[in-house]
């Protein structure tokens, strides 16, 4: 199961956001140690959203993704990082 980062990362119609910052992501992924617990990596959430005003460090995000892939390979973690291109 994967969750899509909140877009927009702010309350909408009075509903609280679930994943709107890095600590939210870390908390969610640490909640259940399972290869089926994941985060959807959607670049559009970061670069196509006017409300972010270019304040998202895409290099840091991609670097974090790459480090996780390397950690999984190093640790023999069979859980794949699924990547889908358009």
TrEMBL record:
Recorded hits in Gene3D superfamilies, A to Z, give: Divalent-metal-dependent TIM barrel enzymes
What family is this protein classified in?
Belongs to the mannonate dehydratase family.
Give the metabolic or biological pathway.
Carbohydrate metabolism; pentose and glucuronate interconversion
What organism is this sequence from?
Answer: Emiliania huxleyi (strain CCMP1516)
Q: What is the lineage of its organism?
A: Eukaryota, Haptista, Haptophyta, Prymnesiophyceae, Isochrysidales
Q: Catalytic activity annotated for this protein?
A: D-mannonate = 2-dehydro-3-deoxy-D-gluconate + H2O
> What cofactor is this protein dependent on?
Mn(2+); Fe(2+)
Question: Which InterPro entries does this chain map to?
Answer: Man_deHydtase, Xyl_isomerase-like_sf
What Enzyme Commission number does this protein have?
4.2.1.8
Q: What does this protein do?
A: Catalyzes the dehydration of D-mannonate.
Task: Output one GO BP term.
Answer: D-glucuronate catabolic process
* A Pfam family annotated for this UniProt entry: UxuA
Highest taxon of the source? Eukaryota
Q: Does the keyword Protein transport apply?
A: no
Q: Any idea what this protein is called?
A: mannonate dehydratase
Keyword annotations for this protein? Iron, Lyase, Manganese
GO MF assignments = ferrous iron binding; manganese ion binding; mannonate dehydratase activity
